[in-house]
Write a structure and sequence with these properties.
Structural class: alpha/beta
Number of helices: 13
CATH superfamily of the largest domain: Type I PLP-dependent aspartate aminotransferase-like (Major domain)
Order of helices and strands: HEHHEHEHEEHEHEEEHHHHEEEHEEEH
Distance between the termini: 45 Å
Shape: globular
Strand content: 15-25%
Radius of gyration: 21 Å
CATH architecture of the largest domain: 3-Layer(aba) Sandwich
Number of domains: 2
CATH class of the largest domain: Alpha Beta
Largest sheet: 8 strands, mixed
Helix content: 25-40%
Strand order of the largest sheet: 2-9-8-7-6-3-4-5
């Protein structure tokens, strides 16, 4: 008897996450064969020697003996109060209380919950291109339609307000803003953010602001929280510990709800329902939140001009700019560079194949630009977490590889 075929759900047809895609499978196979692979595909601080602040680790260890039961579905009160206190220090951030805070197993879970609570089949969400692809994937999985508005490479990767306006329809329900941006490293100007808010106000759109890199800023870059510009609009702000506090594996994120809520009672009840069905976030990791947010901001030394993250950003950017036919907007924040390969110099028809071929030849794993829903195969994303000398060598190898590469 032939067994019944169990195929993949059709809901996953448009769900992609190339950061951990086919090239990673080959990288893992090469590692299993004994090769050393430099993985520049994920922003995972731990594998590059960034250790968790000891205060956070200590508080988690001390909490473990009494952190074995379920918590409130939103999260433990001490952590939610710490989130409230964090934003009380931000000038102009709308007032909210602990009941407006949801803790999650990373921001990823909170994004998934939000889209499931918000979207009916065919509803549209405006998402930047390039994007962090989880936003597109979870919009599709929830039955919605991701509509990508372009960010302008020639304008420092700032969102195009004209393109946003042109893509709004009567099915548009929300606009996603990723600032500082992954994958480009752009930090959006106050003027552009005010323009986005005005569009949302005009068309009654929900604002979804991914601000996980809000404290990883270089030089004189200023991060403007979107909610500070939109106290009269419903805005969900997403953040967490994984990047600023280098504890990605703790999966400890939060979502803050600000602005008027009466018109969105059903949507917010949906979020509460989904929070309840997961029972609660990981309780031991929740005990890291208060320790992190009330302690010394150890990221400051790393992003200072002599700090490791700053030096690595410079090394990556300078190395990429030195490759003929490659240009890169200087990242102002986050942990990535998003270089452009001039199509007149490099005839790349398939950037996923380029990433695969580079991996096999040089044992360095990158991510293709189309993996971030960029429409043309002329960009790559490079994680800037390795030490500067390692980045410099890897980018030199990329330049040498490109010099003779043909598709």
């Amino acid at each position: 008897m032939t067994p019944r075929i169990l195929d993949q759900s059709t809901k996953l047809k448009d769900v992609l996450y190339e950061i951990r895609g086919a090239a990673l499978v080959e990288a893992d196979r090469l590692e299993a064969d004994g090769h050393r692979i430099l993985k520049l595909n994920t922003g995972n601080p731990a594998i590059f020697g960034f250790e968790a602040p000891y205060q956070i680790v200590r508080d988690m260890i001390e909490a473990v003996p009494h952190a074995h039961g379920y918590s409130d579905s939103r999260g433990i009160m001490s952590a939610r109060r710490a989130v409230v206190s964090r934003y009380e220090e931000v000038p102009g951030f709308p007032k909210f209380d602990p009941d407006d805070v949801y803790l999650g197993n990373g921001v990823s879970e909170l994004i998934t919950m939000t889209m499931q609570a918000l979207l009916d089949t065919g509803d549209e969400v405006l998402i930047p291109a390039p994007d962090y692809p989880l936003w597109t994937a979870m919009t599709s999985l929830a039955g919605g339609t991701p509509v990508h508005y372009l960010c302008d490479n020639e304008d420092g990767w700032q969102p195009s307000l004209e393109d946003i306006r042109a893509k709004i329809t009567d099915r548009t329900k929300a606009i996603v803003v990723i600032n500082p941006n992954n994958p480009t490293g752009a930090v959006y100007s106050r003027e552009v953010l005010q323009g986005i808010v005005e569009i949302a106000r005009e068309h009654e759109l929900l604002l979804l602001s991914d601000e996980i890199y809000d404290r990883i800023l270089f030089d004189d870059a200023e991060h403007v929280p979107l909610a500070t510009l939109a106290p009269d609009l419903l805005c969900l702000t997403f953040n967490g510990l994984s990047k600023t506090y280098r504890v990605a594996g703790y999966r400890s994120g939060w979502m803050v709800i600000t602005g008027p809520k009466a018109h969105a009672a059903g949507f917010l009840q949906g979020i509460q329902l989904l929070a309840s069905t997961r029972l609660c976030p990981n309780v031991p990791a929740q005990h890291a939140v208060q320790a992190a947010l009330s302690g010394v901001q150890s990221i400051d030394a790393l992003i200072a001009p002599t700090g490791r993250l700053h030096e690595q950003r410079d090394a990556a950017w300078q190395g990429l700019e030195a490759i003929p036919g490659v240009s890169c907007h200087k990242p102002a924040g986050a942990l990535y560079a998003f270089p452009r390969l001039d199509p007149e110099v490099y005839e790349i028809r398939d950037d996923a194949k380029l990433v695969y071929d580079f991996l096999v030849a040089e044992h360095v794993l990158l991510v293709q630009g189309t993996g971030f829903n960029w429409p043309t195969p002329d960009h790559l994303r490079i994680v800037t977490l390795p030490e500067a000398r390692v980045l410099t060598e890897a980018i030199e190898r990329l330049g040498n590889f490109l010099a003779s590469y043909r598709q």
